[in-house]
Amino acid sequence: MPRSVPPLALPRWVDPEAVFTHLWAGAPAAFWLDGGVDTDAGWSWMGAGRPEHDTDPLDLVAGLGGGAFHGGWVGWIPYDGDAAWLRVDAALAFDHAARRVWAVGTDATALAALAERALGVGVAAPVPPAEPRGVASGRHRPDEYAGLIAACREHIREGDAYQLCLTTRFTIPGRFFALDVFRRLRRTSSSHHGGFVRIGDTALVSASPERFLEVRDGTVHTHPIKGTRPRAVDPVADAALAEELRTDPKERAENVMIVDLMRNDLSRVCAPSSIGVDRLLEVETYPHVHQLVSEVSGRLRPGTTLRALRDAAFPAGSMTGAPKASAMAILERLEGAPRGIYSGTFGWIGDDGSADLAMVIRSLVVEADAASVGAGGGITWRSVAASEVAEVGIKARAPLAALGAEVPPGW
Fold first, then answer.
1. pLDDT tens-digit map of 247-256
2. Residues 66 and 141 in one domain
3. How confident is the model at residue 67 (pLDDT cuts 50, 70, 90)?
4. Is residue 1 over pLDDT 70?
5. What is the rounded CA–CA span in Å between residue 308 and residue 60?
6. pLDDT digits (tens, 9 = 90+) for 5-22
7. 315 upstream amide cis, omega within 30 of 0
8. Engineering a disulfide at 106: which of 34, 71, 217, 322 sits with its beta carbon 3.0 to 4.6 angstroms away?
């Protein structure tokens, strides 16, 4: 395995958007893992790589490093497909809290060249507005989705599941320049785990608010999201929506179910008695929504590989429901088509076994002749169909707008 060299500090801050648009806008294998627009916390990572065909990063022992990316792999694991990874030997790391930039990787000469290129960029050109594309095509009509909600509730009544994360998809035909789509999305929906990853003819564009697995210093952390409310323009009304989310019995029960599921998943690879709930039922606020978020962590057993962790925890319970195996089987029948990259995970895996992987939600998949947006929500016995349908529309609206498209009527 390549060994990282000491990071190379750049003498001054450079704008991440300017750097990426100047250096990698047209690169066929590039990534930008984004900490957010004008954020003063967290990290962003960006660079180019080469498609990985020889090494599977999931074979690494998990969590030996300290949690910073110094070279390794960037890519995605679909909900129901084959993973795609880029091998990355040189990248830029942006520490937003310290306003420092570092060139990191495995080749000192390449890092020096990368730092010089980054320091030479100008300002980012304005992102063009989206070309109007009309109304997206939905996999399901709103009334069909409401019928699937009723089917989910029947399965819950029969005891087949406690919760089911029912999803659908919206598709827009045509060609899109995926980087412009991402730049528009991050302006309207900035998030701490947004990202742009392009591997060949497929690009993932994400404003994900959900960190799936963070692996560092021998521990694993997962941050399930369950529970959503829209934002309001009026501050008083907005605060009331956040409080309604925090106290809603259905949303709290939904979140706690997934917390318990993730505790169970992590127990397969963590030391006995090491699993804890670090945060429970906290409201996080984003540009378009309030979310109910919890955090579960555990100390990994020595020798645990990332593959073993993946097998234990993936797909994330927040995108399946509970119990997981039963929920996945039910959803496969009801949804009627694969989810693909949506509902999977994306991010980085380091040569030292550290990892930071986000959920593929609030995201678009841009391919050669079309783009698609997945959206859904957790169904429980107390779900109200009209509210669940509206939640899908809330989640899909901003990603579709970045494409110049609209949610179909009724959502």
1. 999 999 999 9
2. no
3. confident
4. no
5. 10
6. 999 999 999 999 999 999
7. yes
8. 71
Q: Are 22 and 99 part of one and the same domain?
A: yes
pLDDT recorded at residue 65: 79
| DSSP string of 138-161, one letter each residue | ESS-HHHHHHHHHHHHHHHHTTS-
Residue 266 included in any domain: yes
pTM for this prediction: 0.96
CATH of the domain at 236: 3.60.120.10
Q: What is the mean pLDDT of residues 271-294?
A: 95
Q: Are 93 and 222 in the same domain?
A: no
- Mean pLDDT throughout 146-163? 97
CB atoms within 10 A of CB 193: 26
3-state secondary structure of 272: coil
User: Residue 63: inside a domain, yes or no?
Assistant: yes
Q: What is the pLDDT of residue 66?
A: 81
Which active-site residues does the annotation give?
210, 226
Judging by beta carbons within 10 Å of its beta carbon (0-12, 13-18, 19+), is residue 59 exposed, middle or buried?
Answer: exposed
Nearest to 343 by CA among 372, 370, 307: 372
**Domain containing residue 332:** 134-177+208-406
Q: Do 235 and 89 fall into the same domain?
A: no
Judge whether 159 lies within some domain: yes
State the Cα–Cα distance between residues 3 and 375, nearest whole angstrom. 40
Q: Residue 56 region, left (φ>0) first, then alpha (ψ -120 to 50), else beta?
A: beta
Report the candidate in 392, 2, 48, 369 with the shortest Cα–Cα distance to residue 199. 48
Last residue of a domain, one of 119, 144, 165: 119
Please enumerate in sequence order all residues whose Cβ is within 8 A of that of 204, keeping only pairs 6 or more positions apart, or say none.
76, 195, 196, 197, 198, 341, 346, 360, 363, 364, 365, 366
d(CA 110, CA 88): 11
Looking at the structure, tell me whether residues 81 and 166 fall in a common domain.
no
